[in-house]
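Render this sequence as a predicted structure.
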Amino acid sequence: MKSSILLVAVLGLFFTACKNGSSESESTNAAVPAPTELNYSVMNIYPHDTTSFTEGLLWMNEHLYESTGLNGESGLIKAKLETGKAVQKIALDNAYFGEGISIINNKIYQLTYTEHKVFVYDMNFKKLPEEFAWPYEGWGMTTDGTHLIISTGGNNLFFVNPENFKIEKTLSVINNNGYVDSINELEYVDGYVYANIWRNNYIIKINLKTGLVEGRADLSNILEKNNFQKSSRTDVLNGIAYNSAKKSFYLTGKYWPAMFEVKFN
C-alpha cells in the first residue's frame, strides 16, 4: 500500500465485506494487530524421502499422505511416519505437476500446478473417473470437513464444493501490513488454516472467520539447528500435517531429509 490512509480504507472495506450480516461488532477502522510470534518445540524427528519434492502433506489413519511435484517426478504417496518409507505410491503422467492434496468423504483430491486438472482417487489410490477443472494455478489444499480450501499462490483462499468443484466462497488473507501473498501449502485446524508462504521459512495461522493472520512461526534454520546438512537440492519449507490425537504438527520441505514433529506455543 502507498499510504496509511489507503490501507485503512482497504481494510475497512475488507471487514465490511467479511461480515455479510454477522453479529460481530469489530470496528471497521480499528488497527490491525501484528501476528503473534508462535514459538515451537521439536518433539520428534523422523526420516523423509529426499527424492520427494513435497507439495502437499496430510496425516490420516496413522500414515502420512504426500503429493510430490515437478514434471516427471510427481506422484501420490502413503508413507509410514517412523521410517519415511512409502507403503503405497502412484505416479502422475509426465505432463502433470502435482500440487496440494486433501481427503474428504473417503476420496483423495490432488491439484495440479498449471494443467487446470484435479484428480480424484479412492483410499486405495485407484484413480476415479471423476476429474475436475480448476481455472487457476493449483498450490495448496486442505478441508474444513465441508469444503475443500484451496490456495493459488496469491492472497485468496477459495472454499470449494467437493462434489462439483464450484467455488462457494473466497476469503482474502491480510495482516497488519495489508494483503498476504504467495500462500502455499495448507492445513486446517479448529477454525484456522496454517499455511506455508512460498520462498520463506514462515508458517502463518489464518483465522477463517476474518482472514486475519493471527500468528506466525519462524522455522528458519530448523534443519541446521537439528544437525542436518543441506544438499544442493534442498529446497524450501513446504508441507504441514496435523495429528489431532497428539495436537502436534508434522513439517517438512522439498527434498528435505527430515520430517519434524512440532508443537506451537
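Summary. The first strand starts at residue 36 and ends at 37. The two ends are 32 Å apart (CA to CA).
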